[in-house]
Write a structure and sequence with these properties.
The protein has about 90 residues and is of the alpha/beta class. It contains three helices and five strands.
């Protein structure tokens, strides 16, 4: 079984917990990219991970199977609908 391609949106405090969880299960999950509208936050991404400031660009280029939303809850509906249009599952 191959790992599920994942991307994280929002690189605030909670994203670190998700980085650790994904890293602990490399046989199940592969972090392919991260996104944050604030380019300064992209430095929090693990080394070697592709970074984006535009979610639609990430979804189009990386084609993750699972999108982990670590953004403020008021943004989840719009981001979730965008992910669904790209055939991506949500957490």
């Amino acid at each position: 079984m191959r790992p599920v391609r994942c991307a994280i949106v929002g690189l605030g405090n909670v994203a670190r917990t998700h980085f650790q969880a994904l890293a602990a299960l490399p046989e199940l999950f592969l972090l392919c990219a991260v996104c944050d509208a604030d380019a300064d936050r992209l430095s929090a991404a693990p080394l070697g991970i592709r970074t984006y400031t535009d979610l639609e660009e990430l979804l189009r280029n990386e084609r993750p199977e699972l999108l982990i939303l670590c953004t403020p809850s008021g943004m989840h509906a719009e981001q979730g609908m965008l992910a669904a249009r790209h055939g991506c599952h949500l957490l």
